Amino acid sequence: MYRYDEFDHALVKERVAEFADQVARRASGALTEDEFKPLRLMNGVYLQLHAYMLRVAVPYGVLNGTQMRRLAHIARTYDKGYGHFTTRTNIQFNWPALTDLPAILSDLAEVEMHAIQTSGNCIRNVTTDVFAGATADELEDPRPWCEILRQWSTIHPEFSFLPRKFKIAVIASETDRAAIRTHDVGLQIVKGEDGGTAFRVFVGGGQGRLPHIAQEIATVPAADLLAYLTAIVRAWNLEGRRDNIHKARIKILVASLGIDAFREKVDAHFATLRRDALAIPQDEADRIKAYFAPPEFADLPKVSAPFDRAVLADPDFARFSRNNVRPHKQAGYASVIISLKPLDGVPGDITDAQMDIVADLAERYAFDEVRAAYEQNLVLPHVRLDDTPALWRELLAAGLATPNADLVTDIIACPGLDYCSLANARSIPVAQALSKQLADLDYQERVGPVRINMSGCINACGHHHVGHIGVLGVDRKGEEYYQITVGGSPDEQAALGEIVGRSLPADEVPGAITRALDRYLEIRTEGERFIDTVRRTGAEPFRQAIYAPFSNPEVADVAA
Fold first, then answer.
1. Is 412 left (phi over 0), alpha (psi -120 to 50) or beta?
2. Contacts of 459 (CB under 8 A, 6+ apart)
3. What is the DSSP letter of 495?
4. Please, where are the H alpha helices in 176-278?
5. Residues 120-167 pLDDT 10s
């Protein structure tokens, strides 16, 4: 993983000192909350319903044991003993005291972490495939390119006050495990015409009030990547809406102009840039790539006798291995998913004690590396197959061995109205109720991979638009109701879900979704996944199942 150089250390240290002074002035009353707001947002600090919230950057989702222990220390010392991992692979602390924030940022700086550009109208954390560097289907490891983008975008003088936030994701395989088409810019590494690295560029994706799937705009060689991205962000920065927060994202500009007209504007800016000045020097690219060199893998056989024996001897381990252990490109190794979705748990939450345990396990079993995933889980990317039974037993003792990765209880959910001042409805209790309703693991495995996403408001932090089943909390005259969508997908066949009908009260949501899943089991063909069935049949069979108990299922309250 990347290590800070002297410029990184100096920048973060200076930012901590600057923010400490700003916090002191806010605490003394010298700054009003309105004056303090833009300053705190530049340092990852939000004001939620009950307290300030700090969002800590985890660039491209990569952490080491020392950093994970420091996060545990912060949760234990300054918060209420837990943290919350997000779809952006960051971690949030929901209860820090305002006056403790400088100390927290100082503690983070000691382990090469910060909260810069995790909020505000800037280029946010760059994300990628959680299995980067471990999966056999990638052309190359995308993480060095994420680091290059991080360095290019951090406190970029031209792009620090954009019309709205801007998000980038990078993948290096045909299978999209980072939802690049839901981003302002998505990048897929491909082979260029000269055989070198190039990037398919997608632009104009995003969720929220007006969701859009990104459209492909160009393929550019690696040498031109920063120049082309500069042209994209510049075109939007100059022409994006600043008079209406709901229409300020680049997706609105691309949709209003059309992709061809927007491409012309980008090309016009691209033509004015000194591309040689924005080209990445080869020695610098090589230096950064060296930080992401593969670990020193042992020369192991493809088959592991200890793993196979454990699968045969213990049905619980066999289930865990089916659902939470993924193939690795190196013989004798695997990637192991640590689910943060226990029965009746809060999706993405992890306690300070569990963070300490994950840090220990990463050091002992995974070359001192742990990844935060888009799905709000953690991954140990490089584990010997021989070690997986012992690792599983330790995860089991820590309450971290829920064998539900990619199954129906692996629910993505925002914090909702329990924490967020923007939310209309709670997400956490509905996710918990659904988890209990679908707790039977045999049923979950029979259903197979289904992505359920929940958001507490139209801002869509739970990415409900692209859930195979999406749940959106809405406010109906002061009461919480939930709108259901079917058929969304965040992957290489990205699509927005279809609203199936009127919104439901919270206590009806688990039953409605269970009926939709049961209908899938009735109508699927051999080997057909839930999302493939929806694509084949459309939403109508699921609409009928969801509203089956009601006398008039055609009654729709879609606007609610």
1. beta
2. 208, 209, 422
3. B
4. 225-239, 250-257, 259-272, 275-278
5. 999 999 999 999 999 999 999 999 999 999 999 999 999 999 999 999
- Residue among 376, 359, 377, 365 at smallest CA distance from 67: 359
Q: Are 466 and 179 in contact (CB under 8 A)?
A: yes
Phi-psi region of 148 (alpha: psi -120 to 50; beta: other; left: phi over 0): alpha
- Other beta carbons within 10 Å of 241: 16
Counting residues of the chain whose pLDDT is more than 90, the rounded percentage is 97
Strands 479-486 and 498-499: antiparallel
Cβ–Cβ under 8 Å, residues 335 and 388:
no
- The count of C-alpha atoms lying within 13 angstroms of the C-alpha of 20, restricted to the half-sphere facing its C-beta, is 12
Among the listed residues 389, 382, 384, 377, the one whose alpha carbon sits nearest the alpha carbon of residue 318: 389
What is the C-alpha separation between 98 and 48, in angstroms, rounded? 12
φ and ψ at residue 384, rounded to 5 degrees: -60, 135
For the record, the structure tokens of 489 come out as 């997908």
- List the structure tokens of 133: 């560097």
The backbone torsions φ and ψ at residue 171, rounded to the nearest 5 degrees and listed phi first, read: -130, 170
User: Within 10 A of 261 (CB to CB), how many other CB atoms are there?
Assistant: 12
Cα 54–58–60 angle (5° rounding)?
A: 145
Spans of the chain below 50 pLDDT: 551, 553-560
Query: Per DSSP, which regions of 427-552 are E strands?
Result: 452-455, 469-476, 479-486, 498-499, 504-505
Closest CA to 121 of 84, 158, 170: 158
130 vs 374: CA distance, rounded Å: 7
Can you read off the two tokens belonging to residue 458?
Answer: 């139209």
Instruction: Retrieve residue 33's tokens.
Output: 């909350």
DSSP string, 17-54: HHHHHHHHHHHHTSS-HHHHHHHHHTTTEEE-SSSEEE
- Quick one: tokens of 269? 């800016």
**Segment holding 203, helix H or strand E:** strand 197-203
Q: Render pLDDT for 514-557 as a digit per residue (tens, 0 to 9).
A: 999 999 999 999 999 999 999 999 999 999 999 998 645 444 44
Question: Which amino acid belongs to residue 60?
Answer: Y
pTM confidence score: 0.96
d(CA 266, CA 245): 23
Residue 170 parent element (H or E): strand 168-171
Q: What is the DSSP letter of 11?
A: H
| Pair 347, 413: CB distance under 8 Å | yes
**Long-range CB contacts (within 8 A, 24+) of 514-522:** 514/437, 514/438, 515/545, 515/546, 515/548, 516/469, 516/484, 516/486, 516/542, 516/545, 516/546, 517/408, 517/438, 517/447, 517/450, 518/545, 519/544, 519/545, 520/447, 521/446, 521/447
What pLDDT does 560 receive?
38
Cα–Cα distance for residue pair 105/107, rounded to 1 Å? 5
Q: How many CB atoms lie within 10 A of CB 533?
A: 21
